[in-house]
Amino acid sequence: MASGEDRKVALLTGITGQINYKFVPIRLFVFMCHVGKSALYSVDNPRNLNFQDGSYLAELLLGKGYEVHGIIRRSSSFNTSRIDHLHTDLYAHKGGKMHLHYGDMTDSSSLVKLINKIKPVEIYNLAAQSHVKVSFDLSEYTAEVDAVGTLRLLDAIRTCGLEKEVKFYQASTSELYGKVAEIPQNEKTPFYPRSPYACAKLYAYWIVVNYREAYSMFACNGILFNHESPRRGETFVTRKITREVAKIHLGLSQFLELGNLDSKRDWGHAKDYVEAMWLMLQQATPEDYVIASGEMHSVREFVLAAFQHVGKEIVWEGSGLDEVGKEKETGIVRVKVNPRYFRPTEVDLLLGDSSKARKKFNWAPKVPFKELVKDMMDSDIALMKKNPLA
Ligand code: NDP
Ligand code: GDR
């Protein structure tokens, strides 16, 4: 094995999150490591085309010469042809530098075995049950994966005796701020989680801080605000909107149903945000950083921008559950409110202040809001044209 200095091996959990299509439809959970340059990550749900952060991060690392290892979950509907493609496509693998392994955040022994075998120098923990609304239904499972899973991974590093070698990235979240105490939110803003998901991520945040202090581990929390892309999961609000508006534009659907139109988010592009993950692990000392665009928009504004992209102007009528969005020109109802999408406790607004990251490692988002909407709309229109049943 090459010395720690020359190795570039990354292990990624959550590698099937927002993955690249050309990479193959796989969600990656990534642990990261690097031999000569290698990384390990975990990929789940190979059947699914929407793999966000893991896919973009894997691309970035492969481009930097890493050996990337991704962890994937076993699924009953495993699509072997897609996995075969992932394993055989030299372009996707950049000359065989990408490797997929079965593992799971709920299975300590799989984590220990993989870390011991791969000996990564960087580990990116992106794996999570990441849907806020679903976490109210699957609260125990969410804690198992998002909270205890993070502890398992940190302990697996220690079990392998690699706590002084490995740099660890934790996918923390703006959801930690929840019921916000101040605007904008930075690294010093107090947390007030508002969902089982956010509570689980709060545990993960603090266990990362604790292991950093207790065992001098190089472990960082990236407190990332919402980031989206054409690879975003279909049940998150931005992608749900762009998919449905694309269908309406092509005459494949009449309207879309949403929950709270007034919640506000700080939305950026996932591609920009994975770069910040990597940059955090290249600093001299391990610290926690907010990553955000610094711009806030409501769900309602996202809807308007998506329709505007296909030349439709929406006007709002009524209020509460009776509110609808009508196409100005024709009067056709295009948006309805459905209470099934409301959450028991909502996060009303999030706006990040990422000046620490901007100062410390010169990070800045490149894709503004309008361009993000355009990227997602163009991609979904192309997707629906190719496969109207997608
Ligand atoms: P996704 O939901 O798209 O991806 C989550 C990944 O975790 C998938 O690959 C999923 O695999 C995997 N996973 C879920 N459960 C397990 C498990 N038990 N064992 C192993 N892997 C598992 O999320 P994103 O890519 O959008 O986000 C990546 C991470 O960043 C998540 O931790 C999320 O909570 C966090 N985050 C995301 C933000 C965002 O705006 N996107 C903002 C802040 C934080 P499978 O495909 O099999 O389900
Ligand atoms: P969020 O993202 O909860 O911020 O978590 P999501 O896109 O699910 O919701 C954003 C806001 O939109 C409102 N909303 C709807 N949401 C969904 N999913 N579906 C709807 O129909 C709908 N209508 C309105 C929501 O109530 C909410 O206010 C995401 C995830 O990626 C987390 O893992 C991550 O930690 C945070 O972003 C930062």
UniProtKB/TrEMBL annotation:
Q: Which biological pathway?
A: Nucleotide-sugar biosynthesis; GDP-L-fucose biosynthesis via de novo pathway; GDP-L-fucose from GDP-alpha-D-mannose: step 1/2
Name the coenzymes or cofactors required: NADP(+)
What the entry lists under InterPro entries is as follows: GDP_Man_deHydtase (IPR006368), NAD(P)-bd_dom (IPR016040), NAD(P)-bd_dom_sf (IPR036291)
An example molecular function term from Gene Ontology annotations: GDP-mannose 4,6-dehydratase activity
- In short, the EC number is 4.2.1.47
**All copies of domain NAD(P)-binding, residue ranges:** 52-376
Broad EC category? lyase
Question: Which family is it part of?
Answer: Belongs to the NAD(P)-dependent epimerase/dehydratase family. GDP-mannose 4,6-dehydratase subfamily.
Q: What is this protein called?
A: GDP-mannose 4,6-dehydratase
